[in-house]
Known about the structure:
- The structure is a single chain.
- This protein folds into two domains: about 1-80, no CATH class; about 90-220 and about 295-395, Rossmann fold (3-Layer(aba) Sandwich), CATH 3.40.50.
- The model is unreliable at about 20-30 (pLDDT under 50).
- The radius of gyration is 23 Å and the shape is globular.
- The chain has helices at about 1-5, 45, 50-80, 135, 160-180, 190-200, 225-245, 250-255, 265-270, 280-290, 300-310, 350-355, 375, 380-395, and strands spanning about 20, 30, 90-95, 100, 110-115, 140-150, 185-190, 210-215, 320, 325, 335-340, 360-365.
- The longest helix is centred in the N-terminal third of the chain and has 28 residues, at about 50-80.
- α3 (about 50-80) packs across α9 (about 265-270) and α5 (about 160-180) crosses α6 (about 190-200).
- About 40% of the residues lie in helices and about 15% in strands.
- The protein is α/β, with parallel strands linked by helices.
Amino acid sequence: MSSKSGLPHWSADWPGSRQEPAPTHPKGPPRKNPLWPDLPDDLAAALAKFDAASVARAVDHAMIAAAREFADGVDAYRRHPYSRAPEDTRIVWRAGGTALIDHGTGDGGVPALFVPSLVNRGWVLDLVPGQGMLSWLATQGVHPYRVEWGSPGDDERDFDIALYVSGRLEPALAEVARRSGRPPVLAGYCMGGLLALAAAIRQPDAIAGLALLATPWDFHAENAARSAAIGTLYRASRPLFGILGEFPIDAIQALFATHDPIVALRKFRRFAAFDPASVEARNFVALEDWLNDGVPLTLPVADEAMLGWYETNLPGQGQWLVGGALMDPAVVKAPSLVVVPGGDRLVPPASAAAVLPRLTQATRLDIPLGHIGMVVGRQAERSLWAPLAEWIRENS
């Protein structure tokens, strides 16, 4: 619809209407428009071959077709029969809204505790039970456990990062060690990596190794202005969240959407053409169910994340405190693995890689995947699962 409203003004003088040579690379190819890289070199000239009424009608048809495909895709998603089975039988420990889930297939294997973000369910790490990453790792000499945070309970409404680490993650880590008879490898994904890192700094002798999967450290590494703007937007809305008593999932989803505002349009148009009986369709539904099953944040956690991390960049400046203690990664003496996804929009590669110089025994793993594709995509087994399993076995 923005194409329709902008069409009358689209000319050679309209910003982005023509491809421009990159000023820093005068001998290189023209710099492609970042929003529409497939535009012809001069869109205004291309449109000038047709009368304005014909172009307007073509835009109308394209707009209606896209809306219809999108609606068909959403309808197909809602009607799809796949539903994830409950995991109650796998829960081996619980405290408040937090559960510890055992993904192992027996008593053997190197124990490894996986820590997801507080804002998303952890089951993305085993998206389709029996076929996801943790199920696969369980066949490769690893005994995976997973933290599932759940929605904050009444006794957790005032939890900050320090309380989640000390009152939930560290006891879960101790339970895995008790069940396994030895310290486990601790692995954190996205925001969960920061919580895992905090636990490793606070209790360096409690872990055999530390794996950080797409974990942000320097929040201003690639686009400081954008990160600071996220903090500013949150600050402006903070009075409303104070009334609600939490940072609601809809607001969190809105922030995620700023990374790619039309991703929903694209993905549901594609899904409309899927065979509902295909594995591809089932996996799409499983992932979409996960995306729509978010968890609200307590206000102390939201304040720390949005203002302390995004706006002020405390971790990247070496000023992040948890429970009053400075979080210095150099305290971690165990071997560390830092996974840097090259196609990650949510955690840019420079942000994830920034922690490497601060760790004493760190290995870097670069993978050509995005933030979610690294754990559930078609290339995930080869790019992440296999090297991660090898690293866990070697550092047990």
